[in-house]
Specification:
The protein is mostly helical. About 85% of the residues lie in helices and about 0% in strands.
Length: about 90
């Protein structure tokens, strides 16, 4: 029973990690990364590592995608400012 659960969790991790790499849009990629964090938390819990399973959701599912979204937003805003004919700060 537990081997089947571990295999299913590993397949979910492989599928979500592949989806995170295959998606080209950074916003969608960060959402898939959040799903990957949740799936990894489930895998860690199944593998009886509850300390890692409890720390994974806030970091891997919330903080990392949020930082990625904020970075993409900042880069897009800086790119628009540079193309408008004005000199950019960088």
């Amino acid at each position: 029973m537990t081997d089947a659960v571990i295999v299913v969790a590993l397949l979910l991790v492989a599928a979500s990690a592949t989806a995170a790499v295959a998606v080209r849009d950074p916003v969608r990629q960060s959402l898939v990364l959040a799903v990957l964090g949740v799936v990894l938390a489930v895998l860690f819990t199944v593998l009886q590592a509850p300390d890692v399973g409890l720390s994974q959701p806030p970091l891997g599912s919330a903080l990392t995608p949020l930082l990625l979204l904020l970075t993409v937003r900042k880069v897009k805003r800086r790119g628009r400012r540079g193309r408008g004919g004005k000199e950019s700060d960088a």
